[in-house]
Amino acid sequence: MTSPEKATARRKIETFNRRIRQKNQQRRDESNRCEAAKAPLSRSFTEDQDLHAAAEEGRQICDTHIETQTDLTMSDVTGLQSECQSLRSQCEAQRVLINYLSINETTFIDNDDKVKLYIGLPAYDIIICTHRFVLPKIKATCLLSIFQQYMMTLMRLRLNHRMPYLAHIFHVHVSTISRPFQHLINIMDARLYPTLIYWPDVEQLRQSLPACFRNTFQNVFRL
């Protein structure tokens, strides 16, 4: 639900509550007025005809106002309650959808296929393990958490997404993506290599080359 829709829903709820309070206040005022009007009825009406007339007038006013309390019927109240419940359900559905589409700490939990697709690592546990190595050197921003910065960097390395696309995914400005990316690349180079990243030596790399390259380009050991 967008912000204007939320504001409209809040205004409807506030209007409903205000009308209920006004009706309750009217009922209390009219009840007090009725009591004041009916009190003289306990006396003898033969004592004062004017008092009797005033009492009758007060009772008529009371009855008239009581009849006007039907402005907000029970069906109106039921309808407003149903509308409020519907809006709450829509808000909850939107919250679930936003969490599903967002990239945060819960996005990849128990979803190794998504980890392989977006990050290139075999499991979520490996993300957490590597994240702990770089965590002490990363600072959270007001828009991106430390985990989101790390995920953004891995997604760019894995999928080669352009900066504007990553900014669109994380709902931030391009500069909010580019600065942490450059910073994390240096941190990952210092923290993950050679502790977690193994780089083969020249002979191992040359053995992995296709035979046509080994025979034609003998000094080449990587492409």
Q: Which characteristics define this entry?
A:
0% strand
Approximate strand percentage:
under 5%
The total domain count is 2
Shape: rod-shaped
- Terminal Cα separation, in Å? 50 Å
Order of secondary-structure elements: HHHHHHHHHH
Helix content: 55-70%
Task: State the low-pLDDT regions, or none.
Answer: 41-46
> Quick one: how many beta strands?
0
What is the averaged pLDDT score? 77
Structural category = mainly alpha
Assembly state: single chain
Radius of gyration: 36 Å
Largest sheet: none
> Total number of helical segments?
10
Secondary structure layout plus pairing:
Blueprint: H1 3-38, H2 49-67, H3 74-101, H4 112-118, H5 124-134, H6 146-159, H7 163-170, H8 174-192, H9 202-207, H10 211-216
Helix pairs in contact: 1-2, 1-3, 6-8, 7-8
3D structure, described in words:
This protein is an all-alpha fold and about 220 residues long. It has two domains: about 5-100; about 110-190, no CATH class. Helices cover about 70% and strands about 0% of the residues. It contains ten helices and no strands. The longest helix is centred in the N-terminal third of the chain and has 36 residues, at about 5-40. The protein is rod-shaped and about 125 Å long. Residues about 40-45 have low confidence and may be disordered.
In short:
This protein is mostly helical and 223 residues long. The chain has helices at 3-38, 49-67, 74-101, 112-118, 124-134, 146-159, 163-170, 174-192, 202-207, 211-216.
